[in-house]
Amino acid sequence: MFIPSLVNGITMGSIYALMALGLSLVYGILRILDVANAGAYTLGAYVGVTVFRLTGSWWIALVAGAAVAASLGFILQRFFYVPILASGPIIPLIASIGVFTALEEAYRLIFGPYIIEFPARVPLPDIHVAGVPVRGVQLLIILVAVVVLVGTWYVLGHTRMGLAWRATAQDAEVAQAMGIDARRVTGWNFLLGYALAAVAGVLVSINYDAVYPTMGDMPAYKMLAIIVLGGLGNPLGTIAASLLIGLVETFVAAYVGFLLPRDSIAFVALIIILLVRPQGIFTRGAVAK
Amino acid sequence: MPGKGRCPVATEPLLVVSDLRVSYGRAQVLDGVRLAVGKGEFVTVVGANGAGKTTLLRAIMGLVPARGRVQVHGQDILPWPPHRRAELRIGYVPEGRRVFADLTVFENLQAGAYRLPGGRTALQARLDFVYGLFPRLAERRHQLAASLSGGEQQMLAVGRALMIDPVLLIIDEISMGLAPVVVDQLFRVFGDMHRQGVTILLVDQNAQKALAAADRGYVMETGRITMEGPAGELRNNPAVVEAYLQSL
Ligand SMILES: Nc1ncnc2c1ncn2[C@@H]1O[C@H](COP(=O)(O)OP(=O)(O)OP(=O)(O)O)[C@@H](O)[C@H]1O
Ligand SMILES: [Mg+2]
To answer: What is the pTM of this model?
Structure first.
């Protein structure tokens, strides 16, 4: 049971990491909890499955899902979040819950309330690790997550764009005085954050062969737990927290699954960890005022 | 009478602020401020707490909505987005230091050079310059800014503003809460910059030091300029002495 749980845990953790990273990037810049980000996860899946039916290609589906979701993110921030940002953090939070709900209703109206299959074949073979079968799609999820996460780590830590991002996240006003175009950073941020959620959505729906309007619900709540654990707005902490939650969930479900349904485990873990470390596990230094 | 009337800028003006108005809600915080800073000049604005000095500097930097005109080299920059001011080589030391706490000293300086032309060579030259001025920053270059002492953070805020190789340096309140030696060191740096031809507009609680360092000064009261003149004359002006210099 150990190896299968490990593989499942890492797969789930990779998915969470993709989504939570997007959310964390957005939080880092605008200091809002953007629940609607999970709407991009579902949007990615629907666009993906639609494009897949037209083209039969999983990767065109992935790219299309990411592109459409990125556009949604950009439009939302420019015309929706940025204008209401001055009213404090609570109003954007409530507004984002509203957007999320509206998106789900829109998916239901457009695509119907039932589960749609997503029977894409990925080019990776099913393999065996220590005698345990690992499906190709799981490998793909882990691979994509590794590439995206390493890429993000590199960009944030070692490029001019990453410096602009981190400076803006710390103090957007001073960053602007230094010549950083905070508006542009914010735009890129949402493009990337929504694209990441969509990539996760496409991969998950291939993995479970299912797309449905409310598939974003559980991730929406769970992501909040993860980014809090990761030390709000700290991308690397968020990645670590995602893997941790993916693994804890899977192992607890596998070994003592009779105690709790899988989805509540993330929250139990959150509560326990926050009781011990209220600042989250991966907080480094002071989170900016 | 010294300090009364207009004291024309000696050199060609670099920065001209005219009829600048800022309001927060219904409160008019700047009420038609005008001032000019000549090329190579060191100008200070003194005034009581809440007079609007910080607001004036923030408006010049484009960080608060304002009406009126802010001309640099004769060009009105008020409508520009804030980040474009770095193109004009304006260095800004904000009130309250505001270093990027979770970035290292080096990264803070790198951020200050974000719009510095000339690639790596130019960046390295500026780093060497700033580390030369503040060896403590050089020693701590890989430390997070959050871990620096207050004085070191202020040095970093000044160093960061110097990274753009500024033509105009705008400095808000550096002496707050700092040991006198550190304040003196920073004022010496400003004096050196001034001698090297950098134009400076400085605001500080320590009006005595500010007027001693500056060529010219303005007095600001509740959102208006009420007096201006050569810094030496303002220092001896009884009204100024009574209002801003006595407690020191
Ligand atoms: N964001 C804001 N919202 C509302 N009022 C503000 C804001 N910022 C400043 N003010 C008000 O504007 C006035 C001028 O403030 P400002 O910070 O410019 O003064 P100052 O001269 O820099 O004071 P100090 O010497 O204490 O730094 C004050 O009455 C202040 O309360
Ligand atoms: Mg002030």
So the answer is: 0.88
